Amino acid sequence: MVIEMIFVYVCIMGMFALLFILSWREREKGVFRKMAAYLLHRQQDIRQKHAGRGKNWKRDLSRRKLGDKLKTLHPETAVPEQVKEYYLAQYSMILMVIFLGDVLCLAVWGSARSSPLLMDGNYLRRNPYGGGEVPVGLEAQIEGAGEEIFAYLVEERKYTQEEIDVLYMEALEQLPAAILGENEGFDDVRKDMELVAGLEGYPFEITWESSAYSVINMDGTVDNEELTEGEIVTLTAHFHYEEWDFEHQLYIQVNPVLYTAKEALRNRMDELLAKQEESTKNEDKMVLPDQVDAHPIVWREIIEDSSGYFLMLVFIAAGVLYWGHKRELDQKLELRKKELLLDYPEIVNKLALYMGAGMTIRNAFLKMGEDYRKQERRKKRYVYEEILIACYELQGGRLETEAYDHFGRRCQVQAYLKLSALLAQNLRKGSNDLLQMLRQEADSAFAQRKSLAKKLGEEAGTKLLLPMMMMLCIVMVIIIIPAYFSFMM
């Protein structure tokens, strides 16, 4: 990457350090909540500074809608406090995700550079015997000729001729047991042999030749079904290691290709690298060429740094969490609406029951609110919370008609709006048929609740369809696989 990602990570960490210092005096508990509170205060200052200019009307409208949703869910708490807590939780969560993601990116960046292969500018570190090749990316800055990038494999340290001689004698002793397979000896071969391509612990590549491929193939397959008498087959093993082997001849005619100046320079660089590799193959280090065609070369290792992708994932995760937090609020509102609809028949039935016993509408509301408030370990029910607020309004001196109108509007459900309008109209105009109307409304509400329960049951059945299909597939696999193997056997 053109820009070293470490600068991005350090800048992000520096921003968090600065934010930590600036937010130290905030009264919130927790480092990230302090930072979130500081950002909210700065955001509020900027909004007040630009107040009246007509630039932030969309943001103000969004905040008002958010306040209405939160008030609907928690009417007992002041809206400004709920909005503040909502943004504190959202901002602190996003800040925590970005901070932890930045720490992870720094760790990945450091891990990628913990063991560099390029040392002192022009030495490549080799693996010891058996360590294998090491891929390395190199960038050569050539004065007057620009930059060249190489994807190079640094081979492991090679054996010397004396070491190869000792290993070869040991490999010959191990070879018979390795290739006999299930046969007892070379004088009685009846089953397939195992013509291995190498011996574990030895650096040789082994290839095979057979004097009779119709009898013993190169892979060790023995074809002795048509033999009438024993036949001697000569197997030839070729041990290859670097330039050392028994027999190996290749005749290839290669015609030269016309190269451009840049391609010729690249080929020259490849030749120099191959020459240096050849001259230092018995050493612990490989010396890189310092010039090509009188042009000095500056080498720099290309390190595969994947930490930038982690940072991208971090910001994506933060965005998903931000979107999910907003969606969670809408889901809570939908659940509240369903709960209100399910509780509506009970509320209407209680009103009809209490009024049938001689209570007024006011006393019926106060009775329902008092019973709900006195419950031990009560589970929160939105409709009773709204009834409690209506009771507080009535006890505070608000007119009954206004209290019932506010109750219906706070519920934000058509059924409760209808009920509140019915109660308020009865108080304004007076009617002797209110009890009968409430009983009819209760019967209608119970019928609607049955329909709603049936609909919810169908939705639950649809949601269970995917797990049921998965269980069916698992059961089929459990049944079919044993049956298949028993049939094959």
Summarize the structure.
The chain is an alpha+beta fold. It is built from 13 helices and 9 strands.
| Unreliable residue runs | 248-258
- What general form does the structure show? elongated
What characterizes the major β-sheet?
Answer: 4 strands, antiparallel
Oligomer: single chain
Order of helices and strands: HHHHEEEEHEEHEEEHHHHHHH
Helix content: 55-70%
The percentage of residues in β strands lies in: 5-15%
Q: Give a count of the beta strands, DSSP E runs of length 2 or more.
A: 9
Radius of gyration: 42 Å
Q: Total number of helical segments?
A: 13
Helix and strand composition category: alpha+beta
Mean pLDDT: 78
- Give the strand line-up of the largest sheet: 4-3-9-8
Distance between the termini: 58 Å
Report on the architecture of this protein.
The protein is an alpha+beta fold and 489 residues long. Helices cover 58% and strands 10% of the residues. It has 13 helices and 9 strands. It has helices at residues 5-22, 31-49, 57-73, 79-112, 161-179, 261-279, 307-356, 361-373, 382-395, 400-411, 414-429, 434-463, 465-488; strands at 118-119, 123-125, 134-142, 146-154, 205-210, 235-240, 285-287, 291-292, 295-302. The strands form 3 sheets. Strands 4-3-9-8 form a 4-stranded antiparallel beta sheet, covered by helices on one side. Strand 1 and strand 2 (123-125) form a beta hairpin. The longest helix has 50 residues, at 307-356. The chain is elongated, with a radius of gyration of 42 Å. The model is unreliable at 248-258 (pLDDT under 50).
